[in-house]
TrEMBL record:
The keyword Transmembrane applies. Signal peptide: none annotated. Keywords: Membrane, Transmembrane, Transmembrane helix. It comes from the Bacteria. The chain crosses the membrane at residues 7-26, 61-81, 88-108, 120-140. The keyword Membrane applies. Pfam families: DUF4293. This is DUF4293 domain-containing protein.
Length: 159
């Protein structure tokens, strides 16, 4: 049913993945405090701190596309409440998409860190941590969907 707790969790997964698209994921400042490297879901930008101008920009659109796919899968799974096995399968695929997104973010930030300032790590910000929130909400929704499926099967067995 649409009013179950897993609906709230699936909606929160979609919100978390939209946060990944909207907010920065990773940032690092050079030792002179003159330039900052910022990774978003769409690009990796080198910004002059004094003028706030973008010095260099490199497209990283694959992170944004995967985050939108994960949000779309969560919303589609939310609408599949009548078929719980399909809903669990969609949530498994969504977990895989989120893990791939997380791995690409870590790999991209590691590569950018090696080029910009390898002796110090950058800081992961809201966009990065939103993925973990989405993964936790996805696991919780799967747990409650499985719980509902077991309840339905036990009632069918009694009949």
């Amino acid at each position: 049913m649409i009013q179950r707790i897993q609906t709230v969790f699936l909606f929160l997964v979609a919100v978390a993945m939209i946060l990944v698209v909207l907010f920065p994921i990773w940032q690092q400042v050079n030792p002179d405090q003159t330039m900052m490297l910022t990774l978003t879901a769409w690009n990796l930008e080198k910004i002059d701190i004094q003028t706030q101008q973008v010095i260099e920009s490199e497209g990283k659109f694959f992170i944004g596309i995967l985050a939108i796919i994960a949000a779309g899968l969560a919303l589609f799974s939310l609408s599949q409440y009548k078929n719980r096995t399909r809903q669990m399968f969609l949530n498994m695929i969504n977990s895989l998409v989120m893990v791939v997104t997380l791995a690409l973010i870590i790999w991209t930030s590691h590569q950018a860190n090696a080029d910009f300032r390898p002796e110090v790590n950058g800081a992961f910000v809201l966009g990065f941590w939103a993925i973990f929130g989405g993964m936790i909400m996805n696991l919780l929704s799967n747990r409650f969907i499985r719980k509902d499926e077991m309840l339905v099967r036990s009632v069918d067995r009694i009949r």
